[in-house]
Amino acid sequence: MSHPHASPAQLPEPSMIPVQGWHCGHYFYRWDRQAIAQIDPLKMHRVRQQFCDVLNNLVDRPQRLQSFIISGHKADLGLIMMDPNPLRIDRIHQELMATELGHALVPTYSFVSMSEVSEYLPDKQQYADKLQRSGEDPSSPTFQAKVASYEKRLPIMLAQRLAPEFPTWPAMCFYPMNKSRNVGANWFREPFSSRTEMMAEHAQSGMAFAGRVSQLVTASVGLDDWEWGVTLWARNPQFLKEIVYTMRYDTASARFGQFGEFYVGYLATPETILEHCCIR
């Protein structure tokens, strides 16, 4: 909704491209085995190749795209994609469904969201204030060095949140989440200072897994049924279990967190996915 007092010169041009951040799409599918059985075996090599070509095509593809073997009955395969243009993401889905093999592909779940910079990520001044509150002397060389180091890291941190590179680690976990609105535990009625403190505790727990787990939190408020989507990549699936268990004890999760279904997958090429799913 535009501001009632905004002049036409102040209004942004109509566009599908976010002013800040990228669109993100999570897509999950299962195979219809009866439909696969109807495909002529003599055509299967061409049918497989057509399917793989959609995901391997380097022309007009989303700037970030990964494919996964999904473990369990919720899905057989999954895609995670990011791009400034939402239709470039959805186009991959449509092209897959339009292939001959896509006629046997049944969508089971999707999640639409956008990358954002968390309001709880401190800027330079807020970081300096935090150091001072913790007892650091603002006139000390150590204080100045910490602030300078944070200022240098901040653009990298912002870029990683808005247009992140996807790790090529083998294990992935995705789940949607809300913050509670329950009486006595309504996140949105908590003072900003209190929420910031709880999110700082949450971030501190996550930092213990640096180098083992990488996290992407995308916002789905107004875009999907949940408020945020959390994607975790790990060097080993054991770390997925450990980080989620550890962070459940943080107040932000223990008191205010509400979680949807979890999807766990393993990074794989389209060819590997088809082979694993016995599409031969």
Topology:
Layout: E1 23-31, H1 33-37, H2 44-56, E2 64-70, E3 77-83, H3 86-98, E4 105-115, H4 124-133, H5 141-162, E5 171-179, E6 181-182, E7 185-186, H6 192-207, E8 213-219, E9 228-234, H7 237-247, H8 251-254, E10 257-259, E11 263-267, H9 270-276
Antiparallel strand pairs: 1-3, 1-4, 2-3, 2-11, 4-8, 5-9, 5-10, 5-11, 6-7, 8-9
Helix pairs in contact: 4-5
Describe the structure concisely:
This protein is 36% helix and 25% strand. With 280 residues, it is an alpha+beta fold. Helix 4 packs across helix 5.
What does this structure look like?
The protein has 280 residues and is α+β, with helices and mostly antiparallel strands. The chain folds into 2 domains: 23-115 and 267-276, Alpha-Beta Plaits, CATH 3.30.70; 164-264, Alpha-Beta Plaits. It has 9 helices and 11 strands. It has helices spanning 33-37, 44-56, 86-98, 124-133, 141-162, 192-207, 237-247, 251-254, 270-276, and strands at 23-31, 64-70, 77-83, 105-115, 171-179, 181-182, 185-186, 213-219, 228-234, 257-259, 263-267. An 8-stranded antiparallel β-barrel has the order 1-3-2-11-5-9-8-4. It has a two-stranded antiparallel ribbon with strand order 6-7. A hairpin with a 2-residue loop joins strand 6 and strand 7. Helix 4 (124-133) crosses helix 5 (141-162). It is elongated. The chain starts with 22 loop residues before the first strand and ends with a helix.
